[in-house]
Amino acid sequence: MRTLAMPSGRSIPVLGQGTWGMGEDPGRKRQEADALRLGMDLGMTLIDTAEMYGEGGAEEVVAAALAGRREQAFIVSKVYPHNAGRRAVQAACERSLARLGTGHIDLYLLHWRGSVPLAETLEGFEALKKAGKILDYGVSNFDVDDMREAAGAGVAVNQVLYNLARRGVEWDLLPWCREHGVPLMAYSPLEQAGMLGVPGLMAVAARHGASPAQIAIAWLLHQEGVVAIPKAVAPAHVRENRAALDIVLTAQDLSDLDAAFPPPRRATPLDMR
Ligand SMILES: NC(=O)c1ccc[n+]([C@@H]2O[C@H](COP(=O)([O-])OP(=O)(O)OC[C@H]3O[C@@H](n4cnc5c(N)ncnc54)[C@H](OP(=O)(O)O)[C@@H]3O)[C@@H](O)[C@H]2O)c1
Hints:
Structural class: alpha/beta
Bound molecules: NADP nicotinamide-adenine-dinucleotide phosphate
Helix content: 25-40%
Strand content: 15-25%
Distance between the termini: 28 Å
Radius of gyration: 18 Å
Oligomer: single chain
Order of helices and strands: EEEHEHEHEHEHEHEHHEHH
Low-confidence stretches: none
């Protein structure tokens, strides 16, 4: 798996697996863990989760998927903004560690900005890092002004909504992240499957004998400094998503995709889910 360097010098895989929506229904947990295991078998060892997903249920699914193979995985989890105070974040992290069945989280993110001062959260993250409970920390849903405020504080990544249909970050946030060597993790890379029927995307896919989802992922991975984390429970989707890594888009593909999904022409506020 190709990797990117984070400011800490550690590396992060460019393609991983999301878990939003997992762990909500006990009857589906086994199938969800199987999907994550299949993805890991295929090399997608980065698993993105959060204490919010299924109110801890998704972290439990991740634990089931990682049984006996924790050391192969790169775990990303996120703290709720209301748990992101200097002390509260220590307790929230301990709860996530217990649900994940591990001694450390590879990358721990502030899920979005809330009312706790950022400096306090970052101090809490630093303490967790010193204690070895997390290896790196970062943020999510931070626009360029938030990133400027956090600059120099050891933020390893920024996870934001980015896909062909949501290209606003290309105006200023993505260039800022590149300039500062901070990988941008693209969430909802498939727009939750909502853009897969766009004719311009389907035409490029047909040219490659690939699916529209694969082209959407390949397009993100073509962008410098970007990590993509599609979520898939269907085994066929998991396999497809992994194979997207091997698709090389041509200049014609890129220009056809620009025509179907125009890049931004001015600054817009960051989109969020
Ligand atoms: N930081 C944040 O605020 C934030 C917000 C949203 C998401 N995220 C993270 O980003 C991850 C991904 O985003 P997402 O879950 O919102 O949406 P997504 O990955 O864009 O789309 C997931 C949907 O696409 C389907 N799918 C997956 N692979 C496919 C394929 N090859 N062909 C057709 N359909 C396919 C999935 O179906 P099946 O599951 O049935 O296979 C699921 O319905 C999340 O799971 C979460 O970890 C973070």
